[in-house]
Specification:
globular; 3 domains; FAD/NAD(P)-binding domain; transmembrane; 556 residues
């Protein structure tokens, strides 16, 4: 039987979701190949690029090798190539690898930043809609803050230490939230006062996060950023960007070397001459079944559209948004209808396939505003919900490998407390896994003092000063307070008990457990997480003074 190709162009959210869906349904039909084409060999988790740009996570955190995702999907063939065009009559996709014939074609090539023709953005600014762009921002911010810290001229110094983000949509707000946290780290690294690093959010309209219907959530996000030192400037339309800064509509300027444009998204420009009908942002218009609309307003028989490539307005839910769920819903509808064309199942409209659960906008790792399943909430639980949304996507594409690494990178491999738990569960900030041992040892000493250890009571004290020390030691370990010195006390108590009451293997267990707790166990869900840094700042500043990036002590 002759093989037939279902070609998917673009390995973004829509393309990967569609490839997984089609692979599962066509698993037993060996005559069909699913060919997934992308110029990269990896899937990029686009909605997390702001975390890479701000150095919260490493670049590999948002990259997932396509081989990992599709290794067990034998009917999916991966092709790393660029697509140059399509021949609808011959049903061929033209690529740098050669021509590929198709039975059905799904275009999900993604989007790119839209600067609306604003002069100077591409020459002097930065955009955030690809891995390459996020890495440029990541390297630039690190370098420019370092230069600013060493600059002695006040005006030049302020320019170098000013970071401006244009656009207060999801991307702009989330990036600014990350900069709030990165500023703290950079200030410590370069011996700056945090207030010297100015964060400015520029919005052309009268309010931020315009896509939020519930303005109370937007107001909470506004207040959180404002309370954390972000200068939010509404009604500030940028009309130009130069080497020295930003030009506004009223002629005023903002000196900066760090202008990041997040004000719009449009379809990839290389699809603009492929013979379709294009809507807002250069996206390909589609009918209710996600079939691409041709220039003569008729739907294509064999070409479908999904993700940021798509321009479609649903009567009930409105325009398909440039979000993960928007891409999933359009890819789901396209997959249903591709299968129906092939004789598997029935056709479904977008309205029948759409699944919107809500959204979550993270303003850094510690604060999020969310509207999910009809409920609006913010703060810690909203941050957990944001992670839940990301994990849900990975579960839908059946990637336990991705789920494991996401959990590790977002919770257990984070530096500088940049996770929802403020670093309390990070393996880099403390030894989380000794926390149960610390709690057990704390309870042990309290029970020893109270005489509730059964046959082990004779090995310890139940009265007098020694019993009081046992209770203090146990309570401190239980709370994770002054863990290192109390672990040392635990060792001394055990040695004295050994000498006084005779040897038991329990003594060795207590000594070795106490040693294990001396590596920072009190910072894992313990009060030392707050106390130790406070003591370090207080006594370090008292003994060594405060380091600065510039000194002027001639008047002393």
């Amino acid at each position: 039987m002759a093989e037939k190709n279902i070609v998917i162009v673009g390995a973004g959210f829509g393309g990967v979701f569609a490839a997984k869906s089609l692979s599962k349904k066509l698993k037993s039909h060996k005559e069909y190949n699913i060919i997934l084409i992308d110029k990269h060999s990896y899937f990029t988790y686009m909605t997390e690029l702001h975390e890479v740009a701000s150095q919260r996570v490493k670049p590999k955190h948002v990259q997932e090798d396509l081989e990992h995702l599709f290794y067990h999907d034998r009917n999916v063939k991966l092709l790393t190539a660029e697509v140059n065009g399509i021949d609808r009559d011959a049903k061929i996709v033209k690529t740098t690898h050669g021509d590929i014939d198709y039975e059905k074609l799904l275009l999900s090539v993604g989007g790119q930043s839209n600067d609306f023709g604003t002069p100077g953005v591409k020459e002097h600014g930065f955009e955030l809609w690809s891995m390459e762009e996020s890495l440029e921002i990541r390297n630039h911010i690190e370098n420019i803050i370092g230069q600013g810290a060493a600059e002695l001229n006040p005006e030049k110094r302020e320019q170098l230490l000013t970071i401006a983000v244009v656009g207060s949509g999801f991307t702009g707000a989330e990036l600014m939230g990350e900069f709030i946290e990165q500023r703290k780290v950079m200030a410590q690294t370069y011996k700056l006062d945090e207030s010297e690093i100015k964060l400015i959010l520029l919005e052309a309209g009268p309010q931020i996060l315009n896509m939020l219907k519930d303005r109370k959530l937007a107001d909470k996000a506004f207040k959180y950023m404002e309370n954390n030192g972000v200068d939010i400037r509404l009604n500030s339309r940028v009309t130009g960007v130069t080497e020295d800064g930003v030009i506004f509509k009223d002629g005023s300027t903002l000196p900066t070397k760090s202008l990041i444009w997040t004000a719009g998204v449009k379809a990839k420009s290389f699809i603009s001459d492929w013979g379709f009908k294009y809507g807002r942002g250069g996206r390909i218009e589609a009918d209710d079944y996600m079939r691409a609309t041709l220039e003569d307003d008729t739907p294509s028989e064999d070409i479908y559209v999904a993700g940021d490539t798509l321009s479609y307005v649903d009567e009930k839910t409105g325009p398909v948004p440039q979000t993960v769920e928007g891409a999933e819903s359009s890819a789901r509808a396209a997959s249903y209808n591709i299968l129906a064309d092939l004789g598997f199942g029935k056709h479904k409209t977008f309205a029948e396939a759409v699944k919107y659960h809500g959204f979550a906008v993270s303003i850094g790792s510690h604060y999020t505003v969310a509207s999910l399943m009809g409920m609006n909430f913010s703060g810690f639980f909203a941050s957990l919900a944001k992670h839940g949304i990301n994990l849900f996507f990975y579960s839908q594409i059946r990637s336990m490998y991705s789920i494991f690494n996401y959990m590790m990178d977002e919770f257990f491999r984070t530096d500088n407390g940049r996770n929802p738990f403020w670093g309390a569960v990070s393996r880099l900030g403390n030894v989380l896994w000794t926390t149960p041992l610390r709690i057990f040892l704390g309870l042990f000493w309290i029970l020893a003092a109270l005489g509730n250890l059964g046959g082990l009571n004779d090995l310890f004290w139940q009265h007098g000063l020694a019993s009081f020390i046992e209770i203090i030691t146990g309570a401190g370990l239980l709370l994770g307070l002054l863990t290192w010195p109390l672990a040392a006390v635990s060792i001394m108590l055990t040695i004295v008990a050994w000498a006084t009451h005779g040897f038991d293997m329990t003594h060795w267990f207590l000594i070795l457990s106490s040693v294990a707790l001396m590596n920072g166990s009190g910072r894992g869900f313990g009060l030392d997480f707050y106390l130790v840094p406070l003591l370090q700042r207080t006594f370090g500043g008292f003994w060594y003074g405060k380091a600065k990036s510039v000194y002027d002590e001639l008047d002393k």
